[in-house]
């Protein structure tokens, strides 16, 4: 049986890498409504693997029970094939994931070939269980089983949550309240909106709200299959801008495209990707506007509070839309480049709103889920000095502010998309912990964070006290103006997932 256990170990380790890297970090399946069926299949397959690990680690299944075990292994093959079909239907797999799936299938085939003689021998014995511990291998199988059972439960909970979000009483049926930016019913009258980055965190919520507003939505997404599965037939999905004919009517463009800034270290290659993923799309939008027979009236282009750079000494000096950038800091230079490209649309007579977002807080994706998980378990921490400002905005208000920009012709130029209240990072961590009835007891020094993350550590250890001057001056009203209120709402909707996004 040693070969069987080695192959199972290889299978579980490769599967764990596939789950964490491809499913969680790249595809972010638990945050995608279109991934519900895939997650359901993953949950069932993980439960089967957990049972097989425990069964083979400690027992032998004799007689008719061997046939039952063999049937379970065949069911896993069927589920795997169905999973492959579902993945091809709902999203575009990267080459690395396809290669890994092929290797996993080969390893599973080798496992079946190695295990088949043992299973046939067991089938010839009288029916019953035999307790046969395998020493360290049994304990290794137990650890593997605990891991896959936990992930099976996690995927099952994600399926349940996504099902509630898709129900009429869930997020897809809940409109942003009228007081959030658009003050009069029917005030937002935009027949056609192009949204880039439509399957991202803000993009999904915005597309859902625009559809409730009655707008015709065109969604640009790198993975057209995933976007079509996400949005359904009512949204026109394209994977490149030149697929949009010149006679298409587009009244407004909301540009949310771009790779995640906080993630992999800012190597030279990563910086080039962050820049290209934003500037190239923005340049493509401007070119589309030149090509269209009727140009859009508005471009809302996403930027970030990183435009203002890192405030030295955790300064709480207020920064409004007229505050300057900090040349030489990557986060500032990146935002300046994005906004410079967006402003080219102004020469075409298009109103341009450059939306500088703080950290967007919402359930299902973004920064909140991981921060909430650590806080729930009492692992919230003060980072560095904890005095650095932490600008933020609730997802409801981020979507509403975009809609406000569409509806308010007086709004143009830079707009700070942040809540009126900015607290220090230490106060931010305490407020989140308090929303779960916890306290912050941990502190992480700044030196190791800087050593590991390099310049990207500025996103965690520095900050900007950004104020939403332009939004307030044009009558926007925040639904979540205070951090405590925002965290209370998020914790409440997390406990009752049929509410909220």
Automatic annotation (TrEMBL):
The record lists the organism as Scleromatobacter humisilvae
> The organism sits in which domain of life?
Bacteria
Q: Does the keyword Transmembrane helix apply?
A: yes
Instruction: Provide the family line.
Output: Belongs to the NAD(P)-dependent epimerase/dehydratase family. SDR39U1 subfamily.
Q: What is this protein called?
A: TIGR01777 family oxidoreductase
The UniProt record lists the NAD-dependent epimerase/dehydratase domain at: 193-410
- Tell me where the transmembrane regions lie: 61-82, 103-125, 137-157
Q: Which Gene3D superfamilies match?
A: NAD(P)-binding Rossmann-like Domain
Which segments constitute the DUF1731 domain?
444-490
Keywords tagged on the record: Membrane, Transmembrane, Transmembrane helix
- Name the InterPro entries for this protein: DUF1731, Epimerase_deHydtase, NAD(P)-bd_dom_sf, SDR39U1
